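Exercise 7.
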Amino acid sequence: MKTIKLYKKEEIQDLPKNGKFNLEIYVENVEISVKEIFGFCIVRAKFVSFPNLEVIHDFCSLDASGIQLPKLKKVNGNLRIHEFDSFLPELLIVNGDIYNKNELELPKLKSFREIKLKDKKKLRSIITIRTKNDLNKIPDYSFFQLKIDSKEPIIIPLKEIKASLQLVNFENVSFPNLEIIHGNLMSSNKYNGTFQFPKLKHIKGKLRIQITEVFLNELITLKENLILENYQKLHMNKLKEIDSLIIYNNTTKLPALEIVNQYIDSDYYQLMTTYTLPSLKYVNDLVGRNLELPNLKKIHGQYYYSNTNSGFNKIEFIGSIKIWEYQKVYLNYFKKSPEIFEKEYSSEIKNIMDTLKIESFEKELNPIYDNYHNSLDFLIITLKNIKFKN
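Solution. The predicted structure, written as tokens, is:
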């Protein structure tokens, strides 16, 4: 996406009306009339006004004083506020961290991942619950990290935690009402037992809990990556969307998972038995083996091909397919006649075409050289512009 830098007032009239740009502002006392910015927004000049701006689709950094954003409701990335006199009265959602250096008031803010203030004590403010009396420590303001370190039975009544939840000693603690954690859910110690969050629906940070069996039956979204550990079983029957998925084992089932925004990796950890994702429709990159994906429709980025995968009955789009061929030959031999290696991988390409019902593609060879030994180490074959049979 194009980045536009404004140094003069006259340049403002040339801004595209569609908002499809990144914006950096270095000129003072100007008014920018756009309603939406699809990239990032950085303001490094005083008294800049955005009277109509409602959404910024990337990060926003307000580095000067007197910046006016009277209608801004949503920032889809981190938000940095450096001065005390900016104006954001309608801001509701920040899908990232807020760096609020001078503790500017954000009266309507409802959703964010984490907020970081100038005072380091507030930045790292932790409320520790050891006894029932400690529940009185929970402040009226919404931002704090909650740490559970208790051996006595305690019911935590919170419905929402706007930072992170850390579990130390927690076997007798329960969270009957908790629905959303805006930060991370983590545990400091291994616990060989079961635990449950009966109403938890959204985790906007990481899930890092060392518990043998965890019931998260109402969880719908997880904004960071999910690692399926060897020793652990997670019950996540309603989970629909995650950032990325790393598979060590196949004891945890994800029957409702539809979207993986980054990648799936079952290859590096040598998953030896078939793992099925029956509802998966979209993944950005797929680096996997022994995966069964009967309803997958789109691989937006790269698919590192493995003939151990199955399904793909409904696939409609793949950005590119990469095939790795290990070759140990003299470099000059390959450079002179690369076409002689086509026989080595042509049968595999034919198998891919038959399996995925590919009608046509473009092929690209990417040799990886070992210059020290004057040889070819790997040959990466990339299939692009893939069209499928009707």
